[in-house]
């Protein structure tokens, strides 16, 4: 099986979508055109488990142009855009999801490329012997990095992984501005509800939460933040948002959206007193943030009302709406982040693959940062493509800021 997709006839439409995304991915394209000549990935197989979108297709093409053999499956059962898929179908069940992961592992990758660490975790659980052939892996998202760090801490991680998420040109932009916009896009496409004047609860004031709060406020919502970290909570407060516990927030919520990477963030206590008609969604990596098993226990009936909108009529007589089955709403009911943001994330990915190859045998089996110089290079390339110029340090300034002798005069 060379591919397992929904409909091969949609490939033509997919190519148009891929070309459209490419127009906003100048940094990745620039790197790809250099690698097309130098072929740094010759004889390398990259096994990727990412959200299968038009932006990801451009990353795969860039890797192929650089000489790599690539295999791609989805990193979430609902995030696939069918017209650009390889081993992925939107709405695939658990059996298909893992069968697709195994298809990618069957190609015996030398590099893994993950979004959420499912591929690495599948390999460590069932294909340990394959780890010997693996030079390293890359990881796209916060939750994946956290899982990999936990493996490294346990001493069970069998190869080095570069935390692409932790590059500044990734999480400052993708997590913040990408998730900020695409999460609202997902909620709006699914419901067509007005955000202005609504009470909009955001669980988690990390990189994604900050972006979402900023954009929801921009659309006129009355934003409330819930947090468990006192520093993040006070930051949200000083950024001008109300802060309260989820159980309290649920009573006044028109919308709740979770972006924590944590489990059961909206749970039974919240459902019991929830505002009638509340729209609940999640943009964190896994579908565990809304406690759907607990919700089902207090539900009388369920009905699909629109694509990606399911109503839960509760025994209490209230109704709540769950979007995209509690899976990440921006990729479930919309198209994920805009290409111009993924441009920087995927420039990090492709440079991370090169970094692993250049440092073969030198990296420990732990989680590594991409060197800052590459991070800055991506930012500089993006600015250059946007036609923005910035100042450079003079020799005098360099000397001044690196010294200690110049104090009060
Ligand atoms: P982060 O670590 O910067 O922020 C998470 C925040 O959630 C932290 O401030 C933490 O204190 C808070 N938190 C944890 N448990 C909580 C709870 N029970 N209640 C309230 N707050 C809680 O992480 P991030 O980069 O913002 O990523 C968040 C999630 O979004 C992760 O799962 C990540 O993988 C995912 N993500 C999704 C997308 C997307 O496209 N949808 C993009 C990037 C990241
Ligand atoms: N994660 C968030 N948005 C994405 C996109 N457009 N493509 C791939 N991964 C993503």
Task: Give me the strand/helix succession.
Answer: HHEHEHEHEHEHEHEHEHEHEHEEEHHEHH
Estimated structural class: alpha/beta
* Strand numbers in spatial order across the main sheet: 8-7-6-9-10-13-12-11
Radius of gyration: 22 Å
Which residues sit in consecutive blocks of at least 5 with pLDDT less than 50? none
Instruction: Say what the CATH topology of the largest domain is.
Output: Rossmann fold
What is the CATH class name of the largest domain? Alpha Beta
**Could you tell me which ligands this complex binds, including any ions or cofactors?**
nicotinamide-adenine-dinucleotide, adenine
Shape, principal axes of CA atoms: globular
* Level-2 CATH architecture of the largest domain: 3-Layer(aba) Sandwich
């Amino acid at each position: 099986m060379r591919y397992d997709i929904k409909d091969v006839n949609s490939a033509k439409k997919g190519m148009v979508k891929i070309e459209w995304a490419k127009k906003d991915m100048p940094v990745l394209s620039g790197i790809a055109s250099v690698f097309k000549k130098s072929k740094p990935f010759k004889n390398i197989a990259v096994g990727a488990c990412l959200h299968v979108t038009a932006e990801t297709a451009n990353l795969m093409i860039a890797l192929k142009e650089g000489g790599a053999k690539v295999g791609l499956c989805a990193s979430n059962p609902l995030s696939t855009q069918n017209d650009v898929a390889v081993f992925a179908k939107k709405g695939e069940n658990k059996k298909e999801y893992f069968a697709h992961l195994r298809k990618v592992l069957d190609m015996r990758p030398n590099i893994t490329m993950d979004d959420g660490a499912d591929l690495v975790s599948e390999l460590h659980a069932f294909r340990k012997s394959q780890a010997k052939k693996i030079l390293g892996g890359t990881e796209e998202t916060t939750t994946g990095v956290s899982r990999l760090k936990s493996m490294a801490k346990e001493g069970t991680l069998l190869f080095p992984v570069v935390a692409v998420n932790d590059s500044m040109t990734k999480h400052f932009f993708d997590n913040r501005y990408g998730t900020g916009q695409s999460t609202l896009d997902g909620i709006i496409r699914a419901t067509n509800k007005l955000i202005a004047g609504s009470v909009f609860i955001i669980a988690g004031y990390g990189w994604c939460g900050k972006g979402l709060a900023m954009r929801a406020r921009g659309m006129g919502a009355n934003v409330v933040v819930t947090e468990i970290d006192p520093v993040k909570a006070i930051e949200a407060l000083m950024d001008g948002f109300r802060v309260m516990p989820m159980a309290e927030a649920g009573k006044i919520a028109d919308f709740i959206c979770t972006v924590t990477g944590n489990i059961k963030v909206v749970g039974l206590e919240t459902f019991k007193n929830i505002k009638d008609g509340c729209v609940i969604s999640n943009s964190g990596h896994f579908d565990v943030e809304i406690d759907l098993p607990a919700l089902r226990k207090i539900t009388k009936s369920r009905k699909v009302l629109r694509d990606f909108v399911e109503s839960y009529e509760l025994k209490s007589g209230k109704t709540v709406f769950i979007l995209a089955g509690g899976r990440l709403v921006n990729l479930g009911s919309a198209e994920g982040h805009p290409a111009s943001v993924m441009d920087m994330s995927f420039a990090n990915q492709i440079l991370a693959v090169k970094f692993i190859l250049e440092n073969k045998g030198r990296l420990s089996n732990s989680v590594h940062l991409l060197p800052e110089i590459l991070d800055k290079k991506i930012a500089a390339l993006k600015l250059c493509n946007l036609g923005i110029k910035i100042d450079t340090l003079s020799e005098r300034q360099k000397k001044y800021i690196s010294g200690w002798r110049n104090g009060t005069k």
